[in-house]
């Protein structure tokens, strides 16, 4: 069992340090986000765990602090399903932090029953894409002032499950939980491509990635038989530590400073679907996201 897991990828090996760097990781209280945070804490970064559940986040902070010896780990409240919470979080960051060198948009929700965010967006599109889009927009000036800086968007190979449905972006006419997840993960990649173009020459780079099929709480909305199937197939999936490696690679690998806008898997460039390379759709998605959020971001 262990050898199959090893084939799926071990730890990315690099001694790179992040002393004097500040990192925000969304959804850092469990799963891939927590393991990403743990690794970056060992590298000496100041870590901001941006989480919606304060109790779970404090428990993660305690674990990470004890494990790494890094006392510079803080918890801040962020609910990506509510633009007010995102704005409050960003306001505090912009007021209190002198730099943000790495933003890891990791939080995610998969195949939940149909529901809407506080602002009326379909939940998966709202949290996975729009929430992170708004967060990045609100932190952009600070991130640019902190350059060299990076933005890492955790997407998925599930981007192939869906399309960007411009006519029914909130799945109000019909809802397919799997397609809606696919739409949100496709949006992560298209958004990263658009962002990278807009950031050319600023010293800020952007990456999207697939972490692998990972044992985490992401499967919580699946039916019991499907959750059981995920457990049965666990030897063929990654642990959360393994699943965090490509996020860590995109956040840290010095060579990547010369790259921007790409999609990664297993700590290497990866190919994504044609729909994820559609620059016309990327522009349409950008415009629609701005319109839905009531922001002007050229
Ligand atoms: N696991 C996989 O196989 C897999 C595969 C491909 C891509 N991914 C992607 O990897 C990322 C991390 O997923 P994971 O596997 O680590 O899942 P996870 O264990 O379920 O962790 C998801 C994190 O996102 C947070 N979150 C969910 N909704 C939120 C909201 N409204 N506001 C703020 N935080 C919110 C969760 O907080 P709570 O604990 O409070 O719910 C949790 O911290 C996701 O973007 C996912 O799409 C995962």
Describe this structure in words.
The chain is built from nine helices and eight strands. It is 43% helix and 13% strand. The chain has helices at 2-7, 31-42, 54-68, 83-96, 123-145, 177-198, 224-232, 240-252, 279-293; strands at residues 22-26, 46-51, 73-77, 102-105, 149-154, 204-210, 263-265, 268-269. The protein starts with a helix and ends in a 5-residue tail after the last helix. It is of the alpha/beta class and 298 residues long. It is globular, with a radius of gyration of 18 Å. It has a single domain, classed as Rossmann fold (3-Layer(aba) Sandwich). Strands 3-2-1-4-5-6-7-8 form an eight-stranded mixed beta sheet, sandwiched between helices. Helix 5 runs parallel beside helix 6 (177-198). Strand 4, helix 5 and strand 5 form a beta-alpha-beta unit. The relative contact order is 0.15. The structure holds NADP nicotinamide-adenine-dinucleotide phosphate.
CATH homologous superfamily grouping: NAD(P)-binding Rossmann-like Domain
Number of helices: 9
Record the strand order, biggest sheet.
Answer: 3-2-1-4-5-6-7-8
Order of helices and strands: HEHEHEHEHEHEHHEEH
User: Helix- and strand-based class?
Assistant: alpha/beta
How many domain units? Answer: 1
Shape: globular
Question: In angstroms, what separates the terminal alpha carbons?
Answer: 49 Å
The stretches of 5 or more residues where confidence is low (pLDDT under 50) are none
Question: Can you give the helix content as a percent range?
Answer: 40-55%
What is the name of the CATH class? Alpha Beta
Could you tell me the CATH topology label.
Rossmann fold
Largest sheet: 8 strands, mixed
What proportion of the residues form beta strands (DSSP E)? 5-15%
Mean pLDDT across all residues, rounded? 95
Name of the CATH architecture? 3-Layer(aba) Sandwich
Strand segment count:
8
Rg from Cα: 18 Å
């Amino acid at each position: 069992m262990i050898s199959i897991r090893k084939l799926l990828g071990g730890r990315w090996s690099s001694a790179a340090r992040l002393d004097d760097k500040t990192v925000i990781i969304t959804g850092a209280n469990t799963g891939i986000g927590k393991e990403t945070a743990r690794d970056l804490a060992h590298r000496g970064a100041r870590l901001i765990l941006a989480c919606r559940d304060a109790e779970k986040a404090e428990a993660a902070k305690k674990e990470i602090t004890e494990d790494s010896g890094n006392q510079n780990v803080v918890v801040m409240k962020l609910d990506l399903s509510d633009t007010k919470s995102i704005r409050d979080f960003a306001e505090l960051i912009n007021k209190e932090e002198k730099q943000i060198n790495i933003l890891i948009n990791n939080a995610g929700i998969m195949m939940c029953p149909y529901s809407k965010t506080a602002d009326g967006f379909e939940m998966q599109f709202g949290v996975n894409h729009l929430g992170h889009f708004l967060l990045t927009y609100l932190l952009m000036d600070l991130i640019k002032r902190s350059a060299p800086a990076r933005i890492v968007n955790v997407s998925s190979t599930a981007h192939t499950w869906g399309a960007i449905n411009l006519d029914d972006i909130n799945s109000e006419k019909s809802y397919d939980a799997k397609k809606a997840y696919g739409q949100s993960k496709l949006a992560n990649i298209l958004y990263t491509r658009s962002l990278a173009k807009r950031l050319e020459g600023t010293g800020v780079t952007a990456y999207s990635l697939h972490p692998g099929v990972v044992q985490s709480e992401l499967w919580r909305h699946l039916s019991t038989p499907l959750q059981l199937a995920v457990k049965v197939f666990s030897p063929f999936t990654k642990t959360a530590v393994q699943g965090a490696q490509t996020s860590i690679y995109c956040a840290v690998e010095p060579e990547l400073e010369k790259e921007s806008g790409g999609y990664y898997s297993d700590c290497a460039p990866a190919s994504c679907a044609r729909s994820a390379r559609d620059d016309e759709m990327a522009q349409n998605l950008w415009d629609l996201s701005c319109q839905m959020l009531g922001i002007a971001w050229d």
